[in-house]
Design a protein that fits this description.
The complex is a heterodimer. Chain A contains 27 helices and twelve strands. Chain A is an alpha/beta fold. In chain A, strand 6 and strand 7 form a beta hairpin. Chain A is elongated and about 95 Å long. Chain A starts with a helix and ends with a helix. Chain B folds into two domains: 186 residues, Rossmann fold (3-Layer(aba) Sandwich); 151 residues, Response regulator (Rossmann fold, 3-Layer(aba) Sandwich). Chain B has twelve helices and 14 strands. In chain B, the strands form five sheets. A four-stranded parallel beta sheet of chain B has the order 7-6-8-9, with helices on both faces. A three-stranded parallel beta sheet of chain B has the order 2-1-3, sandwiched between helices. In chain B, helix 3 runs parallel beside helix 4, helix 7 crosses helix 8 and helix 11 packs across helix 12. Classes of the chains: A alpha/beta, B alpha/beta. At the A-B interface, helix 2, strand 1, helix 13 and helix 14 of A face helix 1, strand 2, helix 3 and helix 4 of B.
Amino acid sequence: MKRALLRGSAKRSSRLLALLIGVLALAAYPVLSDNLYVQNMLILTFILAIGASGWNIMGGYAGYISLGSSLFTGLGAYTAGILVADFGVPPFIGCLVGGVTAGVAAALLSLVTRRTRGMYFVIVTFAALQLFGLIARNWKSVTGGSSGLAMPLPMWNIAYQDWPFYYSLLVVLLAAIAVSVLIRRSKLGTGLFAIKDDEDKASGIGINAAAYKMIAFVLGSIFIGVAGGIYAYYISFITPAGMFDIVASVLMVLAALLGGRGTIWGPVLGAFIIEPLSELTTTSFGGPNAGSFRLLFFAGILVLVVLFLPKGLIPSISEALHNTARMGALRIARGSSSSGASARTQVAGERGASAMAGDALKVSGLTKSFGGVKAVNDVSLRVGAGSVTGLIGPNGSGKTTLFNLIDGTVTPKAGTVALAGTSIERASRARRAHAGLARTYQLPRLFDSLSVIENVVAPERRFSLTRLFLPRMSGDERDQALDVLAQFGLAGFADISPSDLSYGQRKLVELAQILSLDPVLVMLDEPAAGISPALTERLTAIIRNLNGQGIAILLVEHDLAFIAELCDNVFVMADGEVVAEGTVAELTGNAVVVDAYLGEPAALGIGKVKS
Amino acid sequence: MNIRQRRRLLFAAALSSAVLLAASACSTSAGSASSSANASDSLVVGMSLPLSGAVADVAKAGYQGYQQWAADVNASGGLLGKQVSLDVLDDGFDENAVVANYNKLISQDKVPLLLGTFSSLLNAPASAVAERQNMLYVEPSGGNSDLFTRGFTKLFLAQPATTDALPDRFVQYITALPASERPMTAAYVTQDDPSAAPAVDIFRQKFEALGIRTVYNQTYSPTTATFDPIASAVAQSAPQMIIQGAVTDDGVQFVRSLEKLNYNPKFFFQTQAPADPAFPAAVGGSNSDGIFTAVGWSPNAKYAGNADFVTGYTQKFGEAPSEDAANSYTAGQVLEAAVKAVGSLDQTALANWLHANTVQTIVGPLKWDATGVPDGTLLLGQLQGNVLQITLPEEAATTTTVISPKPAWQQ
């Protein structure tokens, strides 16, 4: 263990050294060489790298593909251009203001796209780019329309070549990378990766997805805006076609995809490959025929990336390097996992204890139809504080829909939901999670981009801006999470991806995860389905233990022995309605229930009930 | 063969084909490098042209104009005792690439002389690179007047005038008409393009000052696909004169829409489109008769060297030169005159000489103000019998006949 840590820190310091050498080499280049052509190439590379890194925060971390990055280039450029031309502002100050404009535009665009996902987000960002291009073209009195805006020539002596452009862009690039690193290591980064993997689930564990996405979009766009302003000053002439350019947008995406989407250095590496290669084909091959060669080259790169490196260069290479190492680690983890099966989980905070009196959950008159089908019809039920309440019913009777209505995934047509006496039916999913409502899914939903322990730490008990920029996982958080995992018998798996776990283990991790919410009520959707008897036993102990700490539990399950063992009170649903309520013993004698649910009393497993 | 092996094989195949591609590209570049010889006995003139991309067809003629100029210079003994060779790069009509290319020409290829590229979009950043690095920059196009507001001292436009002067001759023609023959009303339609929209606006101001009432005024996007709605709106407003800022295909499309409506204005002026040799055939029959346009150059103009240029170019390339070809030939002539007069490659001396002298070219005598704007005017052309005739100024006119009013469309 210690040796591994040492090896890790040695690797980190050699990486830092390489970074330092790289930065120093780039900083020294213009002073050592007077080759303006290479200087120009590096300037354009920095601009592309800034664009790709900015795009990567939203596109790589949060998984929202934007084709509108040039929108921010254009806004930065026009802000700087107008300030310089009409108000005599110094150009580099204008560029900084351009970054602010881009940030504000990104915030507004996030509000507009709050509910759009996937392909729709791509389309909306593309449309926004076109829209702003049209505005720049038609708002002639301000932007100069299609005739463009001329920027003044740089006023410094030619002996200083293009240094001010070069160094300012290098600084912006380093800042963009630094922010990328900070985000990745912060809770904001965890949240963004969670959103990329499963946005609904992320909301369910209290992550305010809209706020996370807005912050990510704004942070990325500010850098693109500043770079856009500097680019305009460098190119010296601003036109709508040149600034709000879809090809430039696509190049930023291509650079990020080539290097490795979602990684820190991928977009930078991609830019340092694409821009010089483009220059090489333009100027070194073919002379007047360069255009055709360039097309062949880019088409070839795109084909190679899509076919062989769908994740991009950096992830593919590091995967190949780490594959062997990881197999070893897994073996060790498996060996130690059988120990520590005790279920003395101590996770409930002050909330679980305080909610001891009254109802943990009170649902009245909840109704939801899908088309003509009344999936949930006028359902009322109560889960007493500190109780374990069961919910049974045949498949299609509306149990999961009821869960979705309670946690806010689906909006009800009528009815109220109160959690520990507080009405929550109008609250967002994240707000409900903050109030102490937690659930698991029939098929466990975990974030595969995060490690097991990061999954456990990911839930958010309340939204606060400052919290977003805290480190991903503090030492305390890690210790606590490790403790919970150990009690679930999963300590050895803390640092691997949940995708490497068995189905049953994933169910346990999901349960450990939602406990981080300090819940008042936990809703479990078929926790025992499809898992081994040994795990079922462990699960029973865990649920008992949670209940012992004052956490109320609402349990959907088909395994009636399991229900009978745990539940004080059981509701029966059929065709979207609650048809009965009582203890398992009471219900087994209820003809309506038996008829609705199973058709014959024997199947209720009466023999086992009293065990 | 399992999947992994097959994938590896595929990868190897793709990789090796990529390497082969690169290798073949290298060998091609070696070939072209020798043709644009960088040898010490030749004088290299560098330029970047949009030879691929959106305006590739136009740029090809511009490239051939430069080649024709180099051939003519070399046939008459070269420049400063050396043969001229061209170092041509392709920028794909991309601003970044044009900046990179001129930087490469200046600081890597270290060419002693530059010539300009095409379009205001590319010339704006390219001229800034040249100006910053103290290189003379004679451009064959880029007439947007904004380019000349930045206090550059080494930028020269090798055309008789910027687009601001485009309306001059036609306004002169209308003004000279007896009041009873002048149009009373006018419609203005223009593509939103820097080479057309500002000129149409100047037209409107000048004609309004002349008392011609504006009955319609519309700017359309470069991507406009159908002109029927615009044409019928124009016809509704019943103007006696139509001015269109027509850059390319939009000129023909608009005429065809007017033909469908059978709306006949007395006067019809289009900015660039009628100068295209393909224009008369595209509008059909003799429907181009009577349409006016402004041109910077005419194959029939009697300026010294023009006839030789047209013959030589047609022989060499098997097609008649376009105005773009003539413009780059002119840019070459301007550079040539300065180098021959100064006798050195001192860029400041060359620029000073051009500011102080008049150069005889195939588009007539050119001289420039302090910002590099030429002080000439364009020629007024009119299509007559499907041939573009020059009607003004008198010294360049190829005919004394002016068709007026415009004949009705033949269906």
